[in-house]
Amino acid sequence: MAKKTLREYMDQNEFFYVPEIYDCISTRAAEMNGFQMVMISSSDFACSQTGIPDLNLLSVDEYCHMIERITYMTDMPLFVDADEGFGRPLQTYHGCKRMARAGADCILITDGNDLSRPGLATIQDACRRLRAAKDGMEGTDCLLMASCKHEVDEDFDGFVERCERYIEAGADIICPLEINRSKKYGGKLGAAKKVAEHVKIPFWYPDLDPGDKAEDAEDLLKWGYHFTGIHYSFRSAMYAMLDTGRHVFETRTNDYVMEHYDYTGYHFYYSPMTCFLSDGKWADLETRYVDKPEDALAVRKQKGFCGPTDKLVPDNELTQR
């Protein structure tokens, strides 16, 4: 069965929560949790690769390498946050062309100033950047999402003008980022509706913040909002590594990690590698190419890393807590 395009998902008239991930294992975790699509967070990806905050140091090559790896392992649609598009418009064209062909289903380009300077690019410069991105995607199913950072409360007409110009430049989806800060129109939700009254295009609702309610976000579907991002993967992984590592360092044992997280309802007999081996797919595949099953590395790995106490789907009771 062919992979569904992002437009086909949008035609289902559903509201999608999109975890912002940074590598293959965070993608796999999102898929196991039941999410239907993911986004590479530029900040989380950069920090995971460099060990320092996102300072726009990663190259197109590094993005494409991760995109290829993620899209090889999952059929979930993949959004990619490409910030200001790697430089001048020709670099945006080149970068988006490569990322679209690497498997990206939607690329986000912002209208922030180039060289990460404060403020916004001019409308003309932002549109040049978006046109270059769209031209680079030509011949693929990849969609273009434009982030609009123009002040909603201070200059609503200017915000609408930018969105309309971005649509003319080729944007398929708009992320009205500055509704996060709106106070004038009834807060974020009120601003989201007001924007949709004046701009006709599918929207990405800016990331869910603490206190945002799922039912409120989903109610925006009738206003054209199809997606929202959720930042949890990198944060939760860092917390878990710090918490567990502290206990391991202090006790000089590995007991904590073997028992502490049982409350989650998940359990790995030896390693989270069971996520990839427990269904027998790789063991069954490799046995086709060897004389004896024990010659297959995947078979030996499955026996060594999967155990009878593995639990990759939590009990309903635990899920409802």
UniProtKB/TrEMBL annotation:
Keyword Transcription: no
UniProt keyword list: Lyase
A GO term for molecular function: lyase activity
The organism's place on the tree of life at top rank: Bacteria
Name the UniProt record assigns to this protein: Isocitrate lyase/PEP mutase family protein
Organism: Enterocloster hominis (ex Hitch et al. 2024)
